[in-house]
Design goal:
With 488 residues, this protein is mainly alpha-helical. The longest helix is centred in the last third of the chain and has 33 residues. It is globular and about 55 Å long. The chain starts with a helix and ends in a 24-residue tail after the last helix.
Length: 488
Amino acid sequence: MKINALIIFLVILKLNYFADNIVISLAPVLVLALAIAILWKKSPLLNFKNLFRINSHLIFYVLIIVISLIRTSGTHDSLNFVLFNVGNTLLFAIYCICFFLYYWSKTRFRSQEDVLIDFCIVPFCLLAISNFILFWLHVTLTQSVLANDHESMNAVLLSHLGLNINRVQFPLEAGFNNYAVYIGGAFCLSVSMFIFHNKRRFVTGLSSAVFLATLLFVDSRSSLYFPFLITVMIYLGKIWQSRFNRTKLPRIFGLAPIIVIIGPLMFLYITPIISQIPELEFISRGGNELKTGNSRYVIWNMAVEWLANFQPEQLIGYGLHGHYGSGMSKKWAYLFVGWRDPEAKSPHNTALSAIFDYGYIGLIIYMGLLFNLFKKIRLMWNNGSKLAYPLLSFMLYILFAGISESMGNLYFLNFTLLFVLVAAIINSQSIAKDTLVLVTTVEDDTATVSNKTNNKTDDIDRGYNRADLIRYPEETDEIEGDHKPEKE
């Protein structure tokens, strides 16, 4: 599993952003292709029918964001950029889906925590540490997102701790929010693992500290506040269950993804109230930032007015950077004076960006994926799986952070890859009886007969032909928790 952590680390480094050498740029794609080929050869359970049955919603989601990338409206998205990112995204999704199905068939997730730590926490912690090292060595690999390199913004959070420094744009990142968004997601996972699990607490604790330091230096307040808020919510949920002897989450919990749609309305009403509380002024960078939602209200109002005048293009969107392709981002460009490419700034909301990029059809697919994942997490929680806590934490983070950031596409590539990882893990936790299809050859059949003659069962048989495999919610309301494999 450590090798897989290194593979993911190599992918999220995004070497094609920094290297002109085609060999270096293609390295992640080649590594992913090789890893998929090895997995495919090792497991008879790996076939397209199984992959689609278990991950159909996720596959459709990956396809729509890849199509939006191919149809990009971005002025700076070269053909090489598009090809590299299409290859990375597709192969990464296939690799994750294949590995978790293969690992499930071999071990039945005897070490569920290790999967989450090695795939979702360790690689991103290594990336954050690499950024700190390069920052302290004064290495610069990316262009500043500010229009003038000498311009800067004060780090509000650190200033309250007595450190008066500017917001840090780390060497391996092309901005502030795009880095903070996925570090915040990884922070949700690591904090939940550290608090609710005893396994490998040194790793999860160290990762949490690194992610916290990163968010303080980047000075992204929402990406820092939401993980703490969500952790408290989950903790209170556990207390509520214990106090009233409840074991199941209410079914209404499955409607949580609706926050993607109604979230901006909540944002509009809550932030003006917060702005009137003197004790909370410290979270603002000054002026009327809280009252205007950092200008987001103005942007959303323009976008909603555009949506009110229906056009056929709104059904399928304009491709990546659809807000620019539609001409709308040019209208709110004046709000981003001092930033590079102000005319290409997104609407800073997941639902609006989804409509601009892949239309109402794509938004429906994205929402369908969220509803499907939340339904499975609820069943995991109801059946006592402790892995439900960090997975739930991350999924809630998607909903809350997505209110004020465009998180449904490839603007935050590494966040999308982390989302694919988490979604594939959730899906692999709900593999049902009679779901998997075993593709055999003559040699496989001979080997199976031989095994039966010797009264032995191989790893694959243990993986798919067990009477106690869990079923999908359509068949029963049970889902696999911390399953203990039978003794051999």
